Amino acid sequence: MVGSGKMFINMAKGKLLAKNRKALFNHTIIDRFDAGIVLKGYEVKAIREGKVDFEGSYIKTDAREVYVINLNIGRYSKQDKESESFNPKRDRKLLLNKNEISEVSREISQKGKTAVPLALVLSNNKIKLEFAVVKGKKEFEKKQTAKERQIRKDMKIQEKEYRKSDY
Fold first, then answer.
1. Cα Rg of the chain (Å, integer)
2. Which of 121, 43, 149 is CA-nearest to residue 87?
3. Which pTM was predicted?
4. Which of 6, 22, 25, 161 is deepest in the core (most CB within 10 A)?
């Protein structure tokens, strides 16, 4: 599924907890996946509080497993401050079946492609990570995207003003 430029997160899947806003600006989406994510209890509570930072995070595959790297999940507000085991950027395992793992690793192994997390969604009381296989945009493509976004914004404003003047 090729990305159309808009962030498509089907709200029927669940409640949006956190979103990677820079992913669509910096990358062209090639294929999307949903995966369960292995978390500790305090991480779930911190995600529900919105203490997530996607900056610099990406997806890595091993022989038979997929991990999200550098996903920063902050400290839960009521968590003990002296806890020694707290590591906000630890590697977290993603839960995918064999076919999905092989498809992701095949896509990522191609030159110029990588996988980045797009969003964390609460679905059936379970936190899912939506991620995509992407290709990086060049500087001129980023400028073109920003220009198109500004043109659409200006057109909407003009349309509203035109509708107001009719009444």
1. 19
2. 43
3. 0.71
4. 25
